[in-house]
Write a structure and sequence with these properties.
With 520 residues, the protein is mainly α. The protein is built from 23 helices and 5 strands. It has a 5-stranded parallel β-sheet with strand order 3-2-1-4-5, with helices on both faces. The mean pLDDT is 97. Bound molecules: flavin-adenine dinucleotide, ligand DLZ and iron/sulfur cluster. Iron/sulfur cluster binds next to helix 15 and helix 19.
Length: 520
Amino acid sequence: MASNPILVPILGDQLTRTLASLRGRTKDDTVILMMEVWDEATYVKHHKQKIVLIFSAMRHFAEELRSAGWTVDYIKLTDADNSGSFTGEVVHAIERHDPREIHVVEAGEWRVQQAIEEWPDKFACEVEILADDRFLCSHSEFEEWAEDRKHLTMEHFYREMRRKTGLLMTDDGKPEGGDWNYDKDNREPPKDKMNPPDVPRFEPDGITREVIELVGEKFSDHFGELEPFGWPVTSDETEKAADAFFKERIEKFGPYQDAMVHGSDDMYHSMLSTSINCGLLDPLELCKRAEKAYKDGKAPLNSVEGFIRQIIGWREYIRGFYWLHMPGLESDNKLNAQHALPEFFWTGETDMRCLADCIRSTRENAHAHHIQRLMVLGNFCLLAGINPRDVQDWYLAVYADAYQWVELPNVSAMILYADGGNLATKPYAASGNYINKMSDYCKECEYSVSKKSGEGACPFNPLYWHFMDRHRDRLKSNHRIGRIYSNWDRMDAAKKQDYLDSANAFLDSLEPAGKGWARD
Ligand code: FAD
Ligand code: DLZ
Ligand code: SF4
């Protein structure tokens, strides 16, 4: 190794061989620094499987880099002089390697980026902070797109990304099939006896077993089951997981994207977000594979367009939205939601069968699929007026794919409308009817979805009207909601009062979460 090498810190969500800080570097002049640090593992009390996934993926990635000839300085959580923070570990690494420069890719999260931006003043050597070009849309490109727009409509952004990538575009610049979006074909309710193929699970190897033991010992008070652990943690495993999706599930991904079946935790979803977000899978490559599946006649356009839209549309848009609205997004609470998160979000102990199943899946797998996160868990938090901080902490802690840049806009702006509508044109509020239509949950629920208020009524029904009533001033002029208030106004006063009394009784019955689940 040359003296005064370049130091390249790689964070837990930067596990990409072609990372900007590694491109063009020579192996005999570079020390890669990877750090397991207490700060990151505990800034919220992440689900045990999430910590296993990230530490194991980091350790495997370090091994992969070493096999390819790179020098990797890997700091384990249990190393005697572990400082507990990224900055502390960079200080130690500077003492060990005396680098002439540090090259680091910008952090995904605002909190970490703030720390990195202090490095140039803190350290004697040069610090170069590089753009994360694993995203298609740079910060400045997003800002330019957003400038002067009254509303940041995702669909318009998505079309730009289609044009930029050429994905599903004809030679004369038109969207494949004539339409940009085939969501109208993607709202099939579940059928009886659906049997989606199993998602591949991966047997923990020696490295993963060691991490499982560490997490069991150090993070025993964190939420969630530690085992069985089956997430992909290496490049080979993530490729196998992607292969299985393109071979077995993409065909039905579109139609059943919004369907929910009790006990079926994956449906036809790709289950690739954990691998994409930590950097092991390239999102654009996945979109190209999806496009190929369509061109080869192996998957219909509605499924393929839907999958591509989630990635080059939603995922990119959410990331742009996060950086545009931080740090304010974290404290936004435009609906003045003040209730504490109920304890059952942590224990799963509720008679509401839909919520109990989504929380069970979350506890067992560190995962719930999109419509569960949006229309069951999220819809509940919106209608019940749970304060945004509690909801943010919960989502950030419990999902293996959760990093603040992607969790926060989805939680604060998409489900809670806490930003007042910069992202969503109206709140995603729904009564029990929606859940009944799109799932098999209600059939065996203790509550009756057809009962509108009073004893035994599905709580979503009165909560829905309670929400509409208490936010009338803000929402009445929204043209997508106005009709709902006409219905409310036509109800007789006693019926309205029944709804409000039932909702208040339900809200009063909720036990707030005990302290210490998400943060010490
Ligand atoms: P699929 O359904 O197969 O979708 C394919 C890919 O599209 C996903 O892997 C993901 O990369 C991308 N995608 C889809 N929807 C979104 C979206 N709304 N925002 C960003 N990317 C999207 N996703 C996360 O990756 N991390 C989170 O912390 C996260 N928190 C969420 C919180 C809420 C309240 C909601 C409503 C959604 C959240 N999502 C989050 C988005 C989505 O639910 C997950 O990406 C998805 O469930 C992951 O499973 P999958 O890989 O099987 O996705
Ligand atoms: C989520 C996470 C956890 C639990 N632990 C670590 C860690 O010890 N070391 C690390 O480099 N990254 C970890 N991560 C992911 C980081 O939180 C993520 O890379 C940053 O938040 C990105 O800004
Ligand atoms: Fe959920 Fe209501 Fe259906 Fe029960 S009846 S499963 S609470 S929507």
